[in-house]
């Protein structure tokens, strides 16, 4: 039975890590350019709603994905307009986007579909499903089929895309010229400006990329993980992603590790309910669920290593005259 | 900065600009109402009538107002200390936990006259503690208070769930809530008090916590603008380096600002748990901590403004419920949307329209000067 347990924990860890990873990478791009993004939660929620609403009405997965990305980018642009162009408070803007998303998704959902805020279920044909259906369930007695097959290879394309994007974001930030500029604008925008590169344009670019990733993360929730939208279905994932990004010290690979850790905690939390661990006893499920937040607070306080934010984070850039 | 471009009189900055931003937010909200096929005029009529048109509706409105005054003051005090406290939600939760634990323990033994003040102190103390930890971590350990308070919101929700599920839920009960408190732990409802005085008033959740909220407003005003400690706190908020140079220790002021802020947010527990529920429940704060941000923004972080803004949001919340009953296809989440739009337009985009007003004022002032010049010549 061990192979079934390990295989299914591995599989569910990867499944719940995926939306965290999309959102955390989105936050990473925005924050490395110097723009705080508290609004990850709201953008994912809106994208999830857009994907579900459009996919269930148009019967097209591609249109659902596009709608999710478009909505998330639009919200990023509002964030940019308020904070980059008009130098408004980045935290306030993010809080506002979260509120608008939490309210508007339900208002529109009830008005359009009259199902208490839920969207109609998305048909099986439009759902993004696992690439290898023969491994959809772990196989008792076969370690290969359970752990490698079900655990690692049974997932849908978005899961692999999320993990591949870690490498892409790393390469972009560390090995390309626009990536270097993006990092520079988060550390020292005056220098970037002096070098003749537009600070607002770089930050808007980062926010647009952030929107694409938030859109994918939101679409994953309704097109792959669940079959419809329900009110407040992100349930704090945007904030866990924010925590993971901070826990990963604003760097892609450590952020991946943090997302995997938090995803693993989420995957085992339900399984550990009522189970007595040897030497520890029964761990309350609320404690495991709270662990990502607790770990982030402890890390930020400098008790385990140090998390140093980009220097110009949250500071609006004022061009010298 | 472009400060020379943005010269406008105080009344424009304090009154006209916030009202203008509020108007834009409401206009966008009206657009949303149109989009879902309802009539904005009808919605607004039902909203105002439901919130202010009857004594019962007014009672509900003032009950919401009470909670929002507490969370609005909490955000404002932290703001004057140069901090953004988004942890009102968690601090209010802890306040409620404080009220509940003390009431379950002592209420059977103590009369109300002793119990209620103790519950108020417990709410303030636990709220203070829950905000002081992020304050300490910001001042001494360098972690950012915004992130820490967000994390503490989730930790508070987890703690509340854990206490209710594992300790406070009566054995065999299906619903996740504690036993009801003894009567001495109940904050008297306004309609009960009025009935004793011989005045008829329909029953509503409005309770004497509203007097506590108004007292808190007076205290915050006195503290920030009349007391030495408040002066020191505001000095650190506007310029920590200068304050440090003047012999003030900024770290302790960060702790004090967060502590007071958390204590105010914690008092939500008195209104919701001792005043209305009479038992500890899950998620009784229901977003009021975040509404506090909108209230403080609209109220310009001043107690008078906060009372007015709390009334506005109290009206929206109570009226929103009525609209969702009366107007088909309309849900009360519209209120959350409006709240978000207000934070967006009156907070994050507060200065978008400022140059326009400054220009208008500039043109007006020039014309006036020209007219004066003519009359002299």
Compile the SSE list and pairings.
The complex is a heterodimer of chains A (321) and B (377).
Chain A lengths: L1 H31 L7 H19 L2 H25 L4 H24 L29 H11 L3 H19 L1 H11 L1 H6 L4 H27 L11 H11 L4 H20 L4 E2 L3 E2 L2 H16 L21
Antiparallel strand pairs in A: 1-2
Helix pairs in contact in A: 1-5, 1-6, 1-9, 1-10, 1-11, 2-3, 2-4, 2-9, 2-10, 3-4, 3-9, 6-7, 7-9, 10-11, 10-12, 11-12
Chain B lengths: L9 H26 L4 H13 L2 H26 L7 H19 L5 H30 L3 H24 L21 H7 L12 H18 L1 H11 L1 H6 L4 H17 L1 H10 L10 H11 L4 H24 L6 H16 L5 H23 L1
Explain this structure:
The complex is a heterodimer of chains A (321) and B (377). Chain A is mostly helical and 321 residues long. Chain A is built from twelve helices and two strands; from the N terminus they run H-H-H-H-H-H-H-H-H-H-H-E-E-H. Chain A has a domain at 2-121 and 143-233. In chain A, helix 1 packs across helix 6. The longest helix of chain A has 31 residues, at 2-32. The mean pLDDT of chain A is 91. By secondary structure, chain B is an all-alpha fold. Chain B contains 16 helices and no strands. Classes of the chains: A mainly alpha (321), B mainly alpha (377). Chains A and B meet through helix 3, helix 4, helix 10 and helix 12 of A and helix 6, helix 13 and helix 15 of B.
Quickly give the structural class of chain B: mainly alpha
* Strand order of the biggest β-sheet of chain A: 1-2
Please report the total strand number of chain B as a whole number: 0
Overall average residue pLDDT of chain B: 92
What is the overall silhouette of chain A?
globular
Q: What is the strand tally of chain A?
A: 2
Percentage of residues in helical conformation of chain B:
over 70%
Order of helices and strands of chain B: HHHHHHHHHHHHHHHH
CA radius of gyration of chain A: 20 Å
Which stretches of chain A are low in confidence, meaning pLDDT under 50 for 5 or more residues running? none
SS class of chain A: mainly alpha
Principal-axis shape of chain B: globular
Major β-sheet profile of chain B = none
Order of helices and strands of chain A: HHHHHHHHHHHEEH
The parts of chain B where pLDDT drops under 50 for at least 5 residues are 1-5
């Amino acid at each position: 039975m061990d192979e079934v347990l390990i295989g299914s924990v591995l599989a569910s860890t990867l499944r719940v890590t995926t939306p965290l990873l999309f959102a955390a990478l989105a936050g990473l791009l925005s924050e490395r350019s110097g723009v705080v993004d508290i609004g990850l939660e709201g953008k994912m929620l809106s994208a999830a709603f857009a994907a579900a609403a459009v996919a269930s009405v148009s019967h097209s997965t591609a249109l659902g994905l596009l709608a999710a990305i478009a909505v998330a980018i639009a919200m990023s642009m509002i964030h940019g307009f308020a904070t980059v162009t008009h130098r408004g408070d980045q935290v306030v803007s993010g809080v506002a986007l979260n509120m608008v998303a939490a309210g508007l998704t339900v208002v529109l959902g009830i008005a359009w579909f009259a199902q208490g805020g839920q969207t109609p279920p998305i048909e099986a044909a439009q759902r993004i499903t696992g690439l290898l259906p023969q491994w959809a369930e772990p196989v008792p007695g076969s370690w290969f089929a359970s752990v490698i097959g079900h655990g690692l290879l049974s997932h849908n394309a978005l899961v692999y895309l999320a993990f591949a994007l870690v490498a892409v974001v790393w390469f972009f930030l560390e090995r390309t010229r626009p990536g270097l500029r993006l990092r520079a604008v988060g550390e020292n925008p005056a220098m970037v400006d002096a070098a003749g590169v537009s600070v607002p344009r770089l930050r808007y670019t980062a926010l647009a990329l952030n929107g694409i990733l938030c859109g994918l993360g939101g679409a994953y929730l309704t097109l792959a993980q669940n079959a419809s939208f329900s009110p407040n279905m992100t349930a704090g994932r945007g904030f866990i992603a924010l925590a993971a990004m901070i826990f990963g010290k604003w760097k892609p690979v450590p952020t991946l590790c943090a997302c995997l850790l938090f995803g693993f905690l989420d995957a085992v939390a339900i399984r550990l309910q009522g189970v007595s661990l040897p030497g520890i006893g029964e761990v309350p499920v609320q404690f495991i669920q709270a662990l990502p937040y607790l770990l982030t607070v402890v890390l930020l306080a400098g008790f385990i290593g140090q998390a140093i934010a980009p220097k110009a984070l949250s500071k609006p850039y004022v061009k010298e005259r | 900065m472009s400060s020379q471009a943005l010269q406008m009189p105080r009344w424009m900055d304090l009154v006209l600009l916030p009202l203008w931003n509020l108007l834009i937010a409401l206009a966008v909200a009206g657009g949303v109402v149109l989009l879902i096929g309802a009539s904005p005029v009808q919605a607004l009529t039902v909203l105002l009538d439901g919130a202010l048109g009857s004594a019962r509706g007014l009672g509900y409105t003032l009950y919401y107002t009470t909670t929002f005054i507490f969370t609005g003051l909490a955000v404002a005090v932290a703001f004057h200390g140069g901090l953004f406290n988004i942890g009102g939600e968690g601090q209010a939760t802890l306040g409620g936990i404080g009220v509940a634990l003390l009431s379950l323990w002592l209420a059977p033994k103590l009369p109300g006259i002793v119990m209620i003040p103790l519950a108020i102190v417990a709410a303030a103390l636990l709220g203070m503690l829950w905000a002081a930890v992020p304050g300490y971590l910001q001042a001494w350990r360098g972690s950012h208070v915004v992130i820490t308070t967000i994390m503490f919101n989730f930790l508070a929700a987890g703690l509340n769930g854990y206490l209710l599920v594992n300790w406070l839920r009566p054995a065999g009960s299906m619903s996740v809530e504690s036993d009801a408190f003894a009567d001495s732990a109940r904050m008297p409802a306004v309609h009960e008090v009025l009935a004793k005085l011989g005045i008829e008033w329909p029953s509503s959740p409005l309770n004497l916590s509203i007097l506590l909220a108004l007292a808190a407003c007076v205290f915050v005003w006195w503290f920030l603008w009349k007391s030495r400690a408040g002066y020191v706190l505001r000095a650190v908020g506007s310029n920590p380096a200068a304050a440090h140079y003047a012999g003030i220790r900024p770290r302790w002021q960060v702790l004090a600002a967060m502590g007071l802020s958390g204590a105010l947010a914690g008092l939500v527990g008195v209104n919701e748990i001792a005043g209305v529920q009479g038992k500890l429940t899950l998620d009784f704060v229901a977003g009021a901590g975040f509404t506090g941000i909108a209230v403080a923004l609209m109220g310009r972080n001043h107690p008078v403004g906060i009372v007015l803004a709390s009334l506005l949001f109290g009206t929206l919340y109570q009226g929103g419920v009525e609209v969702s009953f009366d107007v088909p296809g309309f849900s009360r989440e519209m209120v959350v949307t409006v709240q978000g739009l207000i934070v967006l337009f009156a907070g994050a985009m507060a200065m978008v329209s400022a140059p326009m007003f400054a220009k208008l004022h500039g043109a007006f002032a020039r014309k006036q000067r020209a007219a004066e010049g003519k009359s002299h010549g």
